[in-house]
Design a protein that fits this description.
- This protein is an all-alpha fold.
- It folds into two domains: 34 residues; 42 residues, no CATH class.
- The protein contains two helices and no strands.
Amino acid sequence: MSCPECQDRSFDKDKGSVSFYIKNFNTGYSDLEVVKEKKDLSYFLISPIIIIFYRPLYAFVRFKGYLDFIFRRDPVWR
């Protein structure tokens, strides 16, 4: 049994995510119109690589740096 208010709340969450995607689409579309040098937009194609590989690697290096600081070890680059 579900109440009508609960169904309305779940609809609001879905509505919020749809508006988020619409806002991002509008931002991307306006970027395409405003940018004069279109060759710089090719960097947008490598963004999935950055998100999938670089960010976790960067988080690991940062975490190692925090542990070195906590255990008072000297940072060593190999």
